[in-house]
């Protein structure tokens, strides 16, 4: 097996972060790449993220994931004093891949969890923080859509574009629920439906209003919205490492139902 860097890479990717495997007759076997990002807003205690993406057959997996992990460790150590997280994805029922990752030092300590709840009628009991206003819109204004994308990309260290947002806005029963302070946005939640389930899609609370009940109130607004649409169940997919989101889901009545994807990783200090 031959491992070398890719010849063609997409914009903003470094050749040194790519690995391609070929057999002895130069037939393609697979590839892996390291995708670095700084996620200091969402993960301030471990902001340096190094995602390893693989596209390979079983025979080349160990060599490619090993080469990419070594490169990720090197990149992490180029930022001394900045805690890093190297991670990849593994399907929940793929015990063999998880075992192979563990031999390289990965730990099965993160994942995307689907949490569900049953919706019941009733008023919102918790008071809305003083001075705040409730707004519902559908992100029809292009400027508002652009501002939402800017906030989302900054929060989640992504590079989503307007086509991605248009896809979300086209989902059934889409709406944006906002809580607005006199000085500007306090928090927002995108909701839609999936079959007979309401979906809590993307929730963001501005730093000045975190830990002040805004997120919980948004989830209650979502409950009333879903019931208005004739939905009596809802789900919220949360990243297990984002303990704030997990706590918000739990306090809003959601309970773990299934692991959708594992994100085993290596924490670098």
Succession of helices and strands: EEEEHEHEEHHEEEHEHEE
User: In which range does the helix fraction lie?
Assistant: 25-40%
Please give the order of strands in the largest beta sheet: 7-8-9-10-11-6-12
How many strands? 13
Spatial shape: elongated
**Distance between the amino and carboxyl termini:** 33 Å
Helical stretch count? 6
Mean pLDDT: 95
Contiguous runs where pLDDT drops below 50 for at least 5 residues = none
Structural class, judged by helices and strands? Answer: alpha+beta
Rg result: 21 Å
Beta-strand content: 25-35%
What characterizes the major β-sheet? 7 strands, mixed
Describe the structure.
It is a single chain. By secondary structure, the chain is an alpha+beta fold. Helix content is 28%, strand content 34%. It has six helices and 13 strands. The protein has a seven-stranded mixed sheet, sandwiched between helices. A six-stranded mixed sheet has the order 1-2-3-4-5-13, covered by helices on one side. The two termini are 33 Å apart. The mean pLDDT is 95.
């Amino acid at each position: 097996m031959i491992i070398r860097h890719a010849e063609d890479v997409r914009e903003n990717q470094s050749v040194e972060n790519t690995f391609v495997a070929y057999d002895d007759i130069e037939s393609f076997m697979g590839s892996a790449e390291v995708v670095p990002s700084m996620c200091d807003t969402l993960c301030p205690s471990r902001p340096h993220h190094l995602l390893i993406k693989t596209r390979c057959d079983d025979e080349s997996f160990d060599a490619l994931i090993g080469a990419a992990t070594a490169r990720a460790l090197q990149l992490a150590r180029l930022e001394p004093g900045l805690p890093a997280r190297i991670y990849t994805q593994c399907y929940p029922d793929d015990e063999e891949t998880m075992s192979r990752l563990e031999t390289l030092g990965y730990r099965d300590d993160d994942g995307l969890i689907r949490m569900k709840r049953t919706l019941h009628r009733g008023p919102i009991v918790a008071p809305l923080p003083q001075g705040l206003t409730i707004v519902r819109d559908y992100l029809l204004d292009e400027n508002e859509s652009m501002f939402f994308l800017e906030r989302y990309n900054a929060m989640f260290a992504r590079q989503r574009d307007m086509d991605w947002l248009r896809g979300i806005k086209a989902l059934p029963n889409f709406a944006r629920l906002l809580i607005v302070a006199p000085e500007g946005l306090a928090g927002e939640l995108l909701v839609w439906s999936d079959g007979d389930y309401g979906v809590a899609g993307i929730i963001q609370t501005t730093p000045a209003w975190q830990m002040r009940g805004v997120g919980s109130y948004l989830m209650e607004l979502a409950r009333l919205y879903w019931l208005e649409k004739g939905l009596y169940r809802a789900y919220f997919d949360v990243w297990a490492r984002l303990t704030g989101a997990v706590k918000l889901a739990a306090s809003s009545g959601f309970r773990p139902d299934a692991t959708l994807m594992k994100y085993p990783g290596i924490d670098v200090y």
